[in-house]
Amino acid sequence: MDARRGETLVALREGRAAHAAVIEREGGLSIRVNNYYTLGSTHAAIAERNQTFIPLLAHPDPQSVFFLGMGTGITAGAALLLPVERIVVCEILGEVVELAREHFQPWVNGLFDDSRVTIHAEDGRQCLARSPERFDAIIADLFTPWKAGTGNLYTQDHYRLAAERLKPGGMYVQWVPLYQVSMQELAIISATMASVFPELTLWRGDLYPSRSIVALVGRSTAEPLDPEVLVRNARRLLDAPERSDEYYEALGLRFYGGNPGQSRFFDYARINTDDRPLIEYLAPRPHRAVLTGAARWVVGAERDRLYSALFDALPPEQDPHLRALDERQLRHVEAGLRYALYQGARARGTRLDARSAWLDFLEVATPPTRSPDSPAGQAGFGATGFGGSEGN
């Protein structure tokens, strides 16, 4: 807690493995571990829900979901807005489970009271290993790569175990904070997943200008994205019958970032295993180097270069994952890229680049969008996702 930043300590649990606290700041609550790692915040509720919504949009019938990590519970609770039958959540710190249950009930859709939900306070990998169940989706939280003990959640051994716990057509979703990895770690994680899953796609978790996250979605079978499934699931989440199918198509497809599996975009990277834990030992190096200016996270212009390079490596019209989309629907995918580039250039204050990116966006955006200088234009395509304004 930092009183100079207007923070107030709401609750504290002192555990054997770590201390966990609920912090209030500017009307929002967050959970912080050891007064350093923030596990989520009500200020970022939209972004946390999107960690469930965005990957599950593409699943035709997500009945059972496993969450590896819980934090505030906002992400896991979002799954209850879909007609799921079973949710299993594993959170390594029991103190975090207690604090979330006591202080985050208004944001978790009954997660702690719903009979369909089982919550375990134990190591997520071991929880998954001992489970006899199979799941339609396994969603792994944002794990800080240089934090001790998290490296084994990025290994080939772990992904093989997870693949065995998926139902046919199931998906493993690895969320990655671009503001905490360099291209080296992102490439290693992606290449490691691609060595296990025949299909690996990348989805943006937001269209923010900064602190962006991405989902690496691995599937045991390569199947084309069904736009009708996407529209049906988006309608369930938003319940806005006056909106057209095209609105929901645009809402979902703008987050699609590319197909690094088929494009072999990260094939140059080494594979992370339990025996050769690259992430465990490499990740702290750029963390230290960033502090001295010697290395870069995948943020700002670096992030925009990544998005553009993924798009160019396998354009939407050549992407087998998008082969069921027509020309109009493919334009939504490109519009998502152009809008993200616009947001990035605008945040960096490069007005000419921002204007150019906006004009590129207008060429492919449907339905028509207002000027970027108007409030409606700035929110325009929908800067954050499923409702509301930017939460980070």
Layout: helices, strands, pairs:
Blueprint lengths: L7 E7 L4 E7 L2 E6 L3 E5 L3 H12 L7 E5 L5 H5 L7 E5 L3 H10 L13 E4 L3 H7 L4 E6 L15 H9 L1 E12 L5 H12 L4 E6 L8 E7 L7 H12 L6 H9 L2 E3 L1 H4 L14 H5 L1 H9 L8 H13 L13 H22 L2 H14 L10 H5 L13
Parallel strand pairs: 5-6, 5-8, 6-7, 8-9
Antiparallel strand pairs: 1-2, 2-3, 3-4, 9-11, 10-11, 10-12
Helix pairs in contact: 7-8, 8-13, 12-13, 13-14
Write a short abstract of this structure.
With 392 residues, this protein is of the alpha/beta class.
Molecular structure report:
With 392 residues, this protein is α/β, with parallel strands linked by helices. It has two domains: 3-35, no CATH class; 40-290, Vaccinia Virus protein VP39 (Rossmann fold, 3-Layer(aba) Sandwich). It has 15 helices and twelve strands. It has helices spanning 45-56, 74-78, 94-103, 124-130, 156-164, 183-194, 227-238, 245-253, 260-263, 278-282, 284-292, 301-313, 327-348, 351-364, 375-379, and strands at residues 8-14, 19-25, 28-33, 37-41, 64-68, 86-90, 117-120, 135-140, 166-177, 199-204, 213-219, 256-258. The longest helix is centred in the C-terminal third of the chain and has 22 residues, at 327-348. The two termini are 19 Å apart.
- How would a crystallographer describe the biggest sheet? 8 strands, mixed
The CATH superfamily title of the largest domain: Vaccinia Virus protein VP39
Parts with pLDDT < 50 across at least 5 consecutive residues: 371-384, 386-392
Count of the domains? 2
Give the CATH architecture of the largest domain: 3-Layer(aba) Sandwich
Structure class = alpha/beta
Proportion of β residues? Answer: 15-25%
Global Rg: 20 Å
Strand and helix order:
EEEEHEHEHEHEHEHEEHHEHHHHHHH
CATH-defined fold name of the largest domain: Rossmann fold
Number of strands: 12
Tell the overall outline.
globular
Question: How much is the average pLDDT?
Answer: 88
**What proportion of the residues is helical, as a percent range?**
25-40%
Termini separation:
19 Å
Number of contiguous helices = 15
